[in-house]
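Moderator note: this is an archived Q&A kept for reference. The question asked for a predicted structure of one protein chain; the sequence and the answer are reproduced below.
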Amino acid sequence: MKRLLMAAVLFAASAFAQAVPDALRQSGAEWTRWGSGEMSWFGFTLYRATLWVAVRPGVDLPANVPTALQLDYRRDIPRDRLVQASLDEMRRLGASDTQLQRWEGDLRRVFPDVKDGESIVGVHYPGRGASFFHRGRPNGEIADADFARLFFAIWLDPRSSQPGLRAALLERPAL
């Protein structure tokens, strides 16, 4: 019985370790899966979002520590649609037209067309900017703290257009 319990614990630990996206595993930091939820539009699931938080002792909520948002796509979505949806949401959250014009080119550079089953991981470095990964490989950085704050606010700000998804992402992990 003791061996069976130990095997179950090792299997669960192994499964969790493999759940960490390759892009984050390579960063050298330890990451904790925070919360996860689905983004749907008119009944169609577009993607599953998972929030990862860089582990730091004493941190209760993902604030002022690197966070990562993993989007596992359930549909093909062209780059132009991803870019426009991001810009629209950042505008709604307070970005100026000048900022949006500058960030549009950055978003086109770091966002690919995505296919059903592919993932994009965005890593937010508070006060510095963001890095993006597609299929586990680096896809670019945007070294602009205001961009990163507003981009990740799409999912994490109290004014998010998807409050249910926000609540699922911010759900405290079981310890």
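Archived answer notes: The chain has a mean pLDDT of 84.
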